[in-house]
Amino acid sequence: MPLLLTSSPAALLLPRPSRERFRVAASANIGVNGSAGAGGGGGGFPAFLPRAVERIRDGPAIRLAKRIERVPVQTGFPKGPILSSCVRPLKQQQDSDPVVLLHGFDSSCLEWRYTYPLLEEAGLEAWAVDILGWGFSDLEKRPPGDVAFKREHLYQFWRSYVRRPMVLVGPSLGAAVAIDFTVNYPEAVSKLIFISASVYAEGTRDMTRMPRFVPYAGVFLLKSLPLRYLATLLAFHKIPGGPAGLFDWVQIGRLHCLLPWWEDSLVDFMMNGGYNVLNQINQVKQKCLILWGEDDGIISNKQAYRLHQELPDAILRQVRECGHIPHVEKPREVAKHVLDFLGTQRPEKAEQGSSLPSTVGSC
What we know:
single chain; Rossmann fold; eight-stranded mixed sheet; two-stranded parallel ribbon; 10 strands
């Protein structure tokens, strides 16, 4: 679940949601058993996914999870290449720019479970990439978790596999990742798409001088099911499927937290100051699309107008009746905006959203 990461450790404690802030559709029994832990591999899932992946009942999430793979990325890390998790396109093309999908803070490529199929069906070469330190990469050797190394890792991934100027898509804190990367490697990015962008927080600088047990305590809380439930309710305007749907979305958003190095990687990131891109925004010269949920309860959509004014070449589109993660809540609408921005013809199959259950992302 991509949570807003601000400069204060109190950001790990989310406010109590008002009952008027969210709606959950008709109730249903959960009835899901199984124990969490590392070592998947059953049911066609990659063996490196936590065993809890087998408890997920969401069809698009299951299909995308089965496509996650680890590819070696050679960086300056002295302990060898990093096996980095991503979803690769079924076919690479040469007649259009590839689209590389990042994710939010403390999340994974499974954020794209509903929108990725629509982009792929529309003929885009789409990559869903886990930002180093989150997602499902092999971090047993503990590579650095600071911003500079995250940037280098993404660049080496792009250089090894994507190889052409890309449309870089950054939701929530992924927008800060995208801005930092683009300013440092402008030749690698042709266009930018920001979704509910978290770009005005000043990192985690208040944590850099704290004893390490303090962020570890916050990370322990962040992993807990009660906080994940609360964060999920705050992040969405409407969750389909009642309690069972809510439970499934919590399990999907929490899956990467069950990897054994998750706590260490997240604490390392927070202790190194996090992302602060305030002075980089006006250095972005690429054409940009800004998407924002009108009912975003995590980051006010007033920041959408501020970002629109500060970027020299940007288009702003609001998504109605939608919370902080439009590509999960309104995938068809997000796909439409992306395809319009890229000037891509939308085939009938993608317009109808044939890969999605009827309860998800209607617009």
